[in-house]
Amino acid sequence: MTTIHITENIPAGSALCCASLPAFARSSLNRCNLPAVILGGHTYQQYPVPLAIDCVGELHANFFRALAAIETSDERAVHFRQYMCSAFLLGKSSEAGFAPDKKDDIRGDKSDYLRLLRGWMFSADSIEGAVMKRWVESRFGLLTLNHRGLLEGVNSAVYQRYQSDYVRGLYNSNALESQLDLLYSYCQYELQRQWPARTHWRLYRGVNHINEHNRLADMGDGQQLLLLNNLSSFSGDRDASDTFGDVILEVCVPVTKLLFFPELLTGVLKGEREFMVIGGVYQVSILR
After folding, report:
1. Cα-based torsion angle of the residue sequence 22, 39, 253, 218 in order, rounded to the nearest 10 degrees
2. Is the alpha carbon torsion for 186, 189, 195, 198 positive or negative?
3. How far is CA 206 from CA 48, 219, 226, 265, in A?
4. Per-residue pLDDT for 70 more than 60?
5. Distance between CA atoms of 56 and 185, rounded to whole angstroms?
6. Is the separation of the CB atoms in 117 and 107 below 8 Å?
7. How many CA atoms are closer than 13 Å to the CA of 107, on its beta-carbon side?
């Protein structure tokens, strides 16, 4: 992975050359219907099209057909949770073939998509956060840029720690990445079902040290092109974001780049109001 260079004093009008996803932030391989260089670029933010992870719709076709007959989002959420339990034998360790690792006492069978979400919402730099960022790399080809520090290269201590967190989180677990595949696909189904005409969501993120972020171009009028980490938390409430940094990023996020929104699993993650946003190049407003 290439070291990320922060560009200072970028002249206005240079946005066209920076609108594409930089090579150091993408992989040539992914598991969805668009390459990373396209879905991670500024043009995609402006003109999004649906993203589909390979084979999820086919593997879970009966599940999505069943959703079509359920009228309310709360009932669909219950059906989703029940389906996840049956499809991945959640809570049925012996049936899934698990045996505890007696040497390390690692109980990977206790990990599931809900634990990943809770771990992320506690800290994006957690072990669960590493698993989710690595999932974004695999499915969308957007490389992780930051995890407990800037990932400056595969031989750096920070990168090795990121890999260690990912392996620890995935070890002896039950198809965690496939669970995230279905979570993303269900999220996209609900967004289209509840807001079929909506293409973007205006979201906010409080940050510190804005000069340390990956600013690719100055577009004038307080607008900049920023390269975001491959997975980030945002809020729909500007005032709430103000408590997390001295600068607020205001971003119009394509709904196709949402992995999770607050009402997706009503009653499961109480009190959490986060949107989980898949990264890439974004035009943002810098609010102070």
Report:
1. 30
2. positive
3. 25, 20, 14, 24
4. yes
5. 7
6. no
7. 6
Q: What is the rounded distance in angstroms from the CA atom of residue 207 to the CA atom of residue 9?
A: 19
Do the Cβ atoms of 79 and 265 come closer than 8 Å? no
Q: CA-to-CA distance for 57 and 195, rounded, in angstroms?
A: 20
Alpha-helix residue ranges (DSSP H) falling in the chain: 36-39, 42-46, 56-59, 61-68, 73-87, 113-122, 127-140, 157-170, 176-194, 238-241
Q: Which residue has the higher pLDDT, 2 or 37?
A: 37
Between 246 and 276, residue with greater pLDDT: 276
Which residues have CB under 8 Å from 12's CB, separation 6+? Answer: 218, 219, 220
How is residue 186 written in tokens?
């269900």
* Whether residue 11 has pLDDT greater than 60: no
Secondary structure letter of residue 94 according to DSSP: T
Structure token digits, residue 272: 């959490």
The answer, yes or no, to whether residue 10 has pLDDT greater than 80, is: no
pTM of the model: 0.89
Q: Which tens digit of pLDDT belongs to each residue from 248-280?
A: 999 999 999 999 999 999 877 766 689 999 999
Per-residue pLDDT tens digits for 12-34? 444 555 689 999 999 999 999 99
Length of the chain measured in residues: 288
The residue extents of the domains of the chain are 56-194
Distances (CA, A) of 279 to 42, 89, 143, 166, 219: 11, 31, 9, 19, 19
The secondary structure of residue 19, as a DSSP letter, is S
More confident residue, 19 or 62: 62
